[in-house]
Amino acid sequence: MSAITSSPVSAFGSVPAAPPLVRGITRFARREFRDALASKWFLLYTFAFTVLAVGVSVLSLSGVGSHGFAGFGRTAAGLLNLIMLVVPLMALTAGAGSIAGERERGTLLYLLAQPVSRTQVLLGKYLGLAAALVCSLCVGFGVSAGVLAWRTGGVGIGAYAMLVGFTALLALAMLSLGMLISVVSRRTTVATGLALFAWLALVFVSDLGLMASSVLLKLRVQEIFGLAAANPLQSFKMAVIVNMNASLDVLGPVGAYASRTLGAGLPWVLAASLMAWTLIPLALAVVLFARRGSV
Amino acid sequence: MIHAANITKRFGRTEAVSGVSFDLEAGASLALWGSNGAGKTTLIRCLLGVIRSTGRASISGIDVRRRGRHARALVGYVPQELAFHDDARLGSAMTFFAKLRGVSRDRATESLGLVGLSGHERKRVRDLSGGMKQRLALAVALLSDPPMIILDEPTSNLDAAGRGEVVETLRRLREGGKTLLFASHRPDEVISLAERVLVMERGRIVRDTTPAELWPTEKPVQVVRLYLEMASEADAADALRDAGHAVHLNGHGLCVAVPRDRKAEPIGVLARRQIEVRDIEVLEDVQIPGGDR
Are B26 and B181 in contact (CB under 8 A)? Predict the structure, then answer.
């Protein structure tokens, strides 16, 4: 080893201060983004989502001879069910593995011993993962759009962009929920298990539960709509259907009620629901992580 | 430099650190000594503000609970074993920590050079030996040239050569005026590096002393570590103390400081009491600083 020639205080005259809040978050976000891009889960999710999205696009258009916007509408409807299954699973498991994984590997302790706050670590990881997830979705949607353009001769750019936008919002909401799960879980396996449970609950159980409770409790139509809008997946589904210029009547009396009472404000209400699902779990994760007594 | 007042940390019903108070002056070196589970590591984490505790801890007057990241900017931390993303390359890991600490890439390169890791930038963390990982942790700790280094059993996973290198580096840092606080279960390290020792038992400081007082024997001495059956360790320690030896049970065998030409004496003492010694390890020569005993 070379001779150590450090000074009693610092070679820099004074020790560099801890990074400001935003710069610290950015450092972690960049590292998380790079790590995610290089990781196997990112490649696997991106590949799976792309293959499924292209497959759905091709199947939606096969033998129908649809062109232009009608072709897009059919494809978007096909993609909708795929997105509602795959995207929450991707985002929930990615979020669940983040903090719990670092904790289990022992790397979290070392990071927290640096001049950074827990909030910087958590928000940095969230933003990095969010960017990686959106990139992954963009690859899938991009290839799918290429197929769509090739087969139908055109894509409704605005409508397609809205589909991508709402999907990204759904991914961010599910990532927040995953991060919250990760903060309260000591082990990665527990976090992943909870994330899968949350996915099952949101994708399947809530639908069945809503149907059952509407029958058993004889809920009014506005109550059923309120409960549906509180579920991020239902909000996403309604938002995409509205975005496709389709009538929410396809969703029955609840859809008709929503269209009639909220009109043009409906997409905003649904987007607000998704935003709330993004911000509330993330804020809870920040508070719980900051208050945690141990690593 | 460090002020700790009534630091207490509970994990459920267990009090891992109990009412610990001490002050450490700038430029001083302090060892935390005690068996496994004595609370050394937990105390270090409380002092860094990594885990929440009651009481008050400050570094250079900065409260670690309220302004933890500002307090930690003054400290370089070396864990027992570096835990960082195994896939990361050494160079990119250093760049990340350099940016986090607000220093340039050149400083990262310089810091790697200081610990003898120049030329290894392309290696992945998982491919580093235990000694290289510890040196990497030391390089990260020295990045911003902080006035204080806190180390948690920094040599426990190293072989003799790796230990010697790390101890030598720390000795130079101490001579350069850095404040050192470290946990160790090796008497040779404590004697070589510390001016002051806090002996911990069950989360409490039971003795605030010096290495010379802890191992009162003429210098130079060697520390012999005896490995015994767990059940007979307490009896063995009593027997050796009765025979006038300075003994410490620290969870990694029984450490006895002996003059260099009387290394077998503790084994004889134990043999007379019919206590079997399974193995023996002779640690490095140690020089007790500042004392003629």
Answer: no
3-class SS string, A183-201: HHCCCHHHHHHHHHHHHHH
Q: Where do the DSSP E strands lie in chain B? A: 2-11, 14-24, 29-34, 54-59, 62-63, 75-78, 148-152, 179-184, 196-201, 204-209, 221-228, 246-249, 254-259, 277-286
Cβ of residue A2 closer than 8 Å to a chain B Cβ: yes
- Contacts of residue A264, Cβ cutoff 8 Å, sequence gap at least 6: none
Q: Which of B166, B206, B207, B208 is nearest to B186 (CA)?
A: B166
Does A99 have pLDDT greater than 70? yes
Whether the per-residue pLDDT at B247 is higher than 90: the answer is: no
Q: pLDDT at position B289, please?
A: 45
Contact yes or no for B69 and A294 at CB 8 A? no
CA–CA dist B225, B215 (Å, integer): 14
Which chain A residue is nearest to residue B74, measuring alpha carbons? A15
Q: Residue A67 above 60 pLDDT?
A: no
B13 in reach of chain A (CB within 8 A): no
pLDDT surpassing 60 at residue A66: no
CB contact under 8 A, B144 and A16: yes
Instruction: Output the CA angle A140-A142-A146, nearest 5 degrees.
Output: 120
Residue B207: beta bridge partners?
A: B199
Structure tokens belonging to residue A17: 């201060």
Helices A68-105 + A157-184 axis angle, to 10:
20
State the Cα–Cα distance between residues A184 and A187, nearest whole angstrom: 9
ipTM of model: 0.80
Residue of B nearest to A115 (CA): B69
How do residues A106-121 score in pLDDT, each as one tens digit?
899 999 999 999 999 9
Confidence class for position B220, pLDDT limits 50, 70, 90: low
Interchain CB distance below 8 Å, A10 and B114: no
Query: In this predicted model, which residue has the larger pLDDT, A199 or A216?
Result: A199
Q: Return the pLDDT at B290.
A: 41
Query: What's the DSSP call for residue B292?
Result: -
Both structure tokens of A121: 């670590």
All residues of chain B having their beta carbon less than 8 Å from the beta carbon of residue A2 are 113-116
Query: Hey, are the CB atoms on A294 and B11 less than 8 Å from each other?
Result: yes
Residue range A219-274, pLDDT digits in tens:
888 888 888 888 999 999 888 888 776 666 666 777 788 888 888 888 899 999 99
Tens digits of per-residue pLDDT, B90-124? 999 999 999 999 999 899 999 998 888 899 999 99
Instruction: Tell me if residue B185 falls in helix, strand or coil.
Output: coil
Tokens standing for residue A230: 């509180």
How much is the CA Rg of chain A, to the nearest whole Å? 22
State whether A8 and B27 contact (CB < 8 Å): yes
**C-alpha to C-alpha distance for A184 and A61, rounded to whole angstroms:** 45
Distances (CA, A) of A147 to A56, A74, A136, B36, B141: 11, 14, 17, 63, 52
Gap from B79 CA to chain A (nearest CA, Å) = 8
Supply the pLDDT for residue B246.
75
